[in-house]
Amino acid sequence: MNGIHLKHTIYSSFLGLTIFLTFTGTVYALEADDPFYAKQTYLKQIHMNEAWNVTQSNSGMIIAVVDTGVDLAHPDLKPNLVPGVNLIHPKQPPADDNGHGTNVAGVIGAVGNNDRGVAGMLWNARIMPIKALEADGSGGEQKLGEGIRYAVDHGAKIVVLSLGLNKYSAYMNDIVRYAEERDVLLVAATGNEGNRVKYPAAYPTVLAVGGVNANGTVNELSNTGPEVDVVAPWDVFSTAIGGSYEAKDGTSMAAPQVAAAAALLWGRNPEMKAYQIRQKIRQTAEDPTGKGWNPGTGYGLLRVDRLLNEPYLADMYEPNNRKDQAKVISVSKKITASFSDGTDNDWYATDASYDGTVNVTLELDSSLSVNVQHTDASGVLTTKTVQGGQTVPFKVTKGRSYFQLQLSDRNRKVETPYGLTTSFDIYRDPYEDNDRQFKAFVLPSRSVKVKGTFHQYNDVDWYEFPVQQTGSLRIHVMTDTARIDPVLLVQKQGEKSVTIDEGDDGATESYYLPEVFPGSYYIRVTNVKDYTNPIVGEYTLAIEYDAKLIDPNEPNNRSYQATAISMDTPYNGLIDKSDDVDWFQFKVEEESFVRVGLSDIPSGVSMYMHLYDGSMNSMATSMNSSSSDSQELSGRFKPGTYYLKLTANRPFDNRMYQLLVNAKPLTGGYTDIRGHWAQNAILNLTGKQVINGYDNYTFQPNRPITRAEATAVISRAFWLSKQKAVSYSDLPETHWAYDHVARATQAGIIDGYPDRTFAPDQPVTRMEMTAMLARSMNMTGKRRGALPFTDVDEEYWGTGLLKQMKAEGLIGGYADGSFRPEQQATRAEFVQMLMGILK
């Protein structure tokens, strides 16, 4: 289903209105006495009464409603309507033949205080009805785009879009950009399917509105995702066609609340720009979690009273000068902020639902550039310089990662506003390149599940399933987003293909072959032909192959029959008799960290792994629970031959287990430092027990070093022993680094922040690293001498220390003469510098 659809429940009612001042303490709450005002409980939820104390109208600005039209004769709307257009039947007026547009218009601007029906959030307004949807509420992107453009070209400053499509289109993206360039605010509903945010709400500059229940929780049908900006009440009572009134629900009713609030604000502050209106609505929203932006509620619940009374902040994300103060933002939205000067650091956190790429676009003077440091969820640090107007990609893994932004010109003294736009591209799945049948990815001949993506335009994924013996085949394609409407094609080699496309957007497609014969079966997975763009989402191809399988490793029932296996190569087998035993052997060429993994264990089966050395001495055993389909043995292995015996609590012959052995050679006990430029320093200080790695035998040399880690290393390196009690709000005595911090504080090497925090997980900058190590040697710096690096000046707080450390040959910079003092220091850099000092 590729069109726009409107879903709602209808109740009928009648007319009325008046006005009250209710005194509460020292605050007067202005209430309308329209007959059905009592049914408009959502107005109190967004504190409309307090907002009406400030203003009730905006009759100087046009608000366009692109929808099914509006009841042009409705007595509660007619005074607030201006001429519009009917794009479905151009020779007719934009009269509503569905009811949805009339509902939306009533939320915005049903005349207030007129002794009739309900009160709109704007008692006096100028609403432009634009009919772009059919009588059944359906429509397409062409008419939607025409409607937005008509509104922009005919003076509208706000356009309300209580409709949606699952499809991204370059055409609509251009229309949205057209509105943004002309300073027109677009407000759209996220959709009511309990799925991903629909377009146009999903475009970066559109204000996307979700829906909440009366208790503030997100309605289960309200679409969520990285594009959500704010939420507003799900249930309303509004105008209806035929001059009547009715209860309505959905994000379609939440969006016009935000649009009306924007109009009230803009009417009082006509000098504001659309992006500032958008940002202030985010700024003043009521955060239900206290943790900042999230994909369910965005920045929080619309608060019209705060919107009209609180001052606009040029940077609503401050304070965010440290990693532990990082503000969460979306991976797919445009925000605005500012640098107070060249020394200001802005930290942001993003949560990626998949592996992929976050594209960062910075809007500021093209003569300026920003240093962007990205710390991935896996700990990998990447630094790039982004010019104003440039878009730069950063690879991310699923989970939370951090961005640190700072002007490249650290000497800049003036405040510098900037726009930050993020967009997300999903990862290329591991089965590519399989866009042609002859490139089909060959799957194992057993029941299997694979996750794939449509990461590029017109992506087509082919798979080959080799059937080795007669059986049956069930094929399912499922997706986690309605932006994918999967189409399945199945073809036995040399025979006609069958195409399956029975479900709508996001629905599962299935196909059953009761009898399959030996040969290759080709399976193609695509999105519907209209959805050609890359999609942020995954599909799952599940194949259930029911056949009596044959163990390819038999005979291997004795240790002397053990199947020799190669590292990183999967081996499949069966325990098909009650007394069956499967033996395997593998060789470790040098001391390594070895993982022995057993997966795809049939449901309800417990398998046992017994590990032996070359002399058949037992080393370890493992067993999975009947509810788990995998298990693992791992550890440090010396060079030699090892044997593995597999048994099970009951036989199985309809699914093969998979055995995979992986060995990573160890250097000094680490798997990830061999050949690294800091290898010698890491080995030396590890031998002296000054540093250590992680439980998985990694050192992670390129990971940023934290304040706690750096302090602990210095404490051990300089044999600090004296300590005084320290009291930091974020460093309890139970923290693993507490004693080290206390000793380093006693020695005057490190201290906390003015707010009495220590920020133990905050990354250390290269300047902080230098200062800590300099203080460890009681260096105080020197004033005289030439500047040691091109990116520091005499006013920089660390210049004296840099001069002294450089003069004594303890530090060096980069090839371009810079030191990059505010760049995060890695564990390898810290160890290398410490090694030079200890020498």
Automatic annotation (TrEMBL):
Family designation: Belongs to the peptidase S8 family.
SUPFAM superfamilies referenced in this protein's UniProt entry, alphabetically: Collagen-binding domain, Subtilisin-like
Keyword Protease appears in the UniProt entry: yes
Protein name as annotated: Peptidase S8
UniProt entry keywords in alphabetical sequence: Hydrolase, Protease, Serine protease
InterPro entries per UniProt: Peptidase_S8/S53_dom, Peptidase_S8/S53_dom_sf, Peptidase_S8/S53_subtilisin, Peptidase_S8_Asp-AS, Peptidase_S8_His-AS, Peptidase_S8_Ser-AS, Peptidase_S8_subtilisin-rel, SLH_dom
SLH domain ranges (all copies): 665-723, 724-787, 788-839
Annotated active site: D67 (charge relay system), H100 (charge relay system), S252 (charge relay system)
MF terms in GO: serine-type endopeptidase activity
Species assigned in the record: Paenibacillus tyrfis
PANTHER family hit by this protein: CELL WALL-ASSOCIATED PROTEASE, SUBTILISIN-RELATED
Pfam families reported in the protein's UniProt record: Peptidase_S8, SLH
Any one biological process term the GO annotation gives: proteolysis
